[in-house]
Queue: 2 jobs
Job 1
Amino acid sequence: MSDVFDQFQGTASYIASEELRHAVNVAVALARPLLVRGEPGTGKTLLAENLAAALGLPLIRWHVKSTTKAKDGLYVYDTVARLHDSRFGGTDGANVRDIAKYIKLGSLGEALAAPSRVVLLIDEIDKADLEFPNDLLHELDAMKFRIDETGREIAAAERPIVIITSNNEKELPDAFLRRCVFHYIQFPSRELMTEIVRVHHPDITDRVLDNALEVFFGLRSTPRLRKKPSTSELIDWICALKKAGVDLSRVSGGIPFLGTLLKTEQDVELVGKRAKA
Amino acid sequence: MLIDFLFELRARKLPVSTHEWMALMEGMALGLHESSLDGFYQLCRTLCVKDIALYDAYDEAFLAYFKDVHTDALKLTEELRAWLADPRSLEGLTDEQRQAMAALDLDKLRELFEQRLKEQKGRHDGGNRWIGTGGTSPFGTGGKNPNAMRVGGGGGRSAMQVADERRFREYRRDVVLDVRQIDVALRGLRRLGRDGAEDELDLDETIDQTCRNAGEIEVVFRPPRRNRVKVLLLMDVGGSMDPHSELMSRVFTAASRTGRFAKFRSYYFHNCVYNAVYEDAQFRKPVPVAELLSHSDRDEKLVMVGDALMHPAELLDPGGASFLYTQNRASGHEWLRRLAAHFRSAVWCNPEPERFWPGTTIEVIASVFAMWPLSLDGLAHAVRYLVRGGERPRVGDPSKWMKSMVG
């Protein structure tokens, strides 16, 4: 296999399944955005951070919110500042005629203007308006855009590696999906979970880990749970157990620190009822 | 060469475009499939299937198309070599067999293997000669021969095994409407206007005012454009609506999205509306309809969602409410008429397929509310009707019901 391909192998603190590694490497090789979906807490956002660390590239983040507009990611033209400067004069004797000074690049703009290759994370793309992904099609395809106010064209020196995450909340438009490499992060199997926990808690003993996973997967298989506990919650929970020095095999009557695993009242109630029955 | 597989995928309703297929070809040219079937399974899925709900259909297509392909040349020769080179594989053999093994050199074995591979026409399970699964042949996988060579299979799970498991079956959803489609349909339901807090810079007006002011800056703000449409959603839950509950939750998700409407309220009812509707689907918090109407602007758009199927008595007779704690003095029909009369525009969306409408209580209710099926098309019609008015669809002949009631 060529070196260009298997670039990403996970990192010391991030265990990626083989399927995920393959998807990442395909996206890197084909220079297409990688769309990652999956349950919350399966490490979608962490993937970008660790990919950047593994490849030694800078990471640029773009956290999408419900009010985010696609254009904001490219650049913002600060008209009010310019008006202000034109009236009162800039503090540093600025030239108001120089529009470029009032153009601030957004995250995507920064990634494209970067002198070398970067990793761009577009986090939770489904939070924004329905048409948001469609508005980005051209920029993600061509990896360049024009600032209308100055006529300047910004094109990526090297195509950035784009990682896009989405909770399965909203359907994304087909035209957008066509351009992506897609991967669904499945919930880790018990074996993979053992590895993941070991990375975060290297000093944990087999017995403690076994007990913890037993309780955790038992909890996840409870029917009608509104929100199943996730990987990150498991890691927090084990951390709490360790700090408090609780030995799971000796605890009777309920799960200690249940609040780190279950986040809704109904779920806690449900699990309590089942434990009694 | 793989074009048949593309059509196999498309035949199973996987929306694979030429664009994506070209990307796959590009990927294979780069060797991203690692010259193996497993690699191809992964590569093709990441590039061509963009929805977990379609993974199952992909697995099916993959199984159907590649069921006869057992292995690939590259992996074979490597495994053969490894097998012959690894002395541990020879444990459990008698001395006699070991001698026989030693006599069989690599080239000869490979030759024999390739010869068998050529002779073999299809999938083979069991037996003692062919390459396949089960059986006592020295080639294949899952066989009883303790020294058999495993072909494919070993070293993690193969694509065929993964596909065979159909792990993604539960994610499948062959349903009519998804949230996005409902979302798009509801987008027609708007009347834009500017009101609320002034937090958007009006650039044109600012420049204009500044000029009038002889260059003294005059910043003008205006309220952003917002949808002025107010919506009241009443949903039927429980009983005959249970099969539609998933669809209902999608309608609710799309309609209740923040910022979509100037005002959005939703209530539940069971079967038919009587003197009260409920804030929760468990019917614990009743809101009298009279109160609801007095708090509702006549301009609000009323959207009823329900199957409108019930026993005629539940609809037409006073006191016909089948619901435990309700004693209705006016009939359900009368309450529905009051609702419809209060609002300037109201529609009823029915998840029941249209062919089941005639001869049921749906006919009566469709004479009170403009009714469309809860499909993409129906929803679009309903939205258009709410915004612009127009003709109501006619459903059956409700007059015969009225006569029977009077008689």
Note: Residues 122-156, 172-176 of chain B have pLDDT under 50 and may be disordered.
Job 2
Amino acid sequence: MNERLLGLADDELVIGWRDSEWTGIAPMLEEDVAFSSIAQNEIGHARAVYEMLADDADALAFDRTPAEYRCAPLVQLHLLEWAHTIARRWLYEVADEIRITTLMADLPLAAKINREEAYHRMHAEMWHERLGDEPRFRNAVKELWPYALGVVLPEQREELCARVKLDEVEAVERGANDEAFAALHNEMTSVRRSAPAGAQW
Amino acid sequence: MIYEVFRRERKGQAFEHAGSLVAPDTEFAETWAREQYGRRGESVALWLVPRDAIHDVEDWADEFDLKYRRVDGCWIKARLKEARERAAARTG
Amino acid sequence: MHDEQAFLEYVQAGGQVETADWMPDDYRAKLVKFIEMHGNSELMGVLPEREWILRAPTLQRKLALTAKVQDEVGHAQLIYRVVEDLGKPRDRCLADLVDGKAKFHNVFHYPTKTWGDVGVIAWLVDAAAIISQKALLKCSYAPYARIMKKICWEESFHILHGRDVILAMVTGTPEQFELVQEALDRWWGPLMQFHGNPIPKEEDPMYLWRIKSQGNEEARQQFLEGYVPQIWELGLTVPDPNLRRREDGVWEYSEPDWDELMHVVTGHGPKTDERLAFRRRVLEQEQWVRDAVLAA
């Protein structure tokens, strides 16, 4: 269970971190504000789960080595372009809903997270509808699809395929955190590492 | 389309005009207004209204200066002054 | 009432102007330019801070900084809407901005080098801004005055956040204290230039039209009065040996470098080109999204 929770928390942390990069540069100001809230919520979810798993949420969030994070490759991708970013948002929210709802039976926190994610899903659906016919968007979804499958457990993938209306392909599984993630982690911890462990910020 | 945003800060208060935003439809307008006018918990409710749906009313005719309809009822001042002076004269 | 003199007397007596009212051409032109510069400043102000969102050293700081920058984007949205209702569409404002044809505040032309800058900006740059913004609550153009309420309310969170970031560092390690001092040393010059040269308000057209309700020097004095004591009480120094408060309450200081200010706001700051180029690239890259969404 803890592995799964850590995976959930790390997913939320890293997608929140990636999505927060759009603050200030999203395609329109109104979307910028809304998108930033989603990123902040994701990090808030991560924090809530870390607080359940450890005394020091910051230590768990920042101080592991890149190899120790359990996040799915989907969220680690550095996507600098809107079609891919929204495609990931949409795929992630569909996968996350499946994952979260199976956790809800055992975890009240999952229900809380799920209630907030409802707004994320509305946002993702809205963009999916609006960009659905754009070739850029459809291609991005196709490219990210193997990664999306890796977010959920193998037994949950049939459900994911049904919701997304795509056939199952070989998933990019959790486990191999690549150089792009190491680079993110490096930047993420650069200020924190500049003071001794336990320093206040 | 321009949407005007009205917000109710707390139960018991009226909706107040808060600003406007440009959105292609109500769905986008709602998603965006929720965050722009609610992310810091400053609103309990929003009304989103396309600007085109608002009917402006900005002028009134007042050709004959019908003072009796307004609060600046100056015509009693003079009489009140005289009544007070007379009452003072009676007692004084 | 299409009489410029009568309009001038009206605004100087505290009269408010709404979007559909008649305005002298000069008033409208100065108003649009002023408000547009504010919008541009919010949008450009995002860029120096964005990098640090990725490097925030705790989850709480990460969230607070993201929320601060988000507010600034939200302010830009409110401000450009006001400009649009006055007749200049947002995409023209943005085009003028990235083409270097429009101005934004001096402070956003400078680099941010350390986490110390993050604290100094949130605490002192936002403080300087909020002094001007509070004065704008009385702007004669009512739609702008009204959005200033929300803007001022949100800015107050930023100053608290900034002060907290600074306090954590000045009570942390000696190296952290140094980070703050070093950042302050770099930002002091731009901060002193921020409110503009001390043109008497009677000669400032923005004041005459009551677009601004405060002279530049008045704003600067308010900043010094409010914030130098706060700086000094933390054991930090201000890099101006002439800075002192006279007995009559007026702050004396070394003459700011007005040439530097002029040089910077006309597009020659250390980071101007890089940031405008970045904005231009992002705008171009995402034009298809705006076309897909807004071309309803």
Note: Chain A has one domain: 2-194.
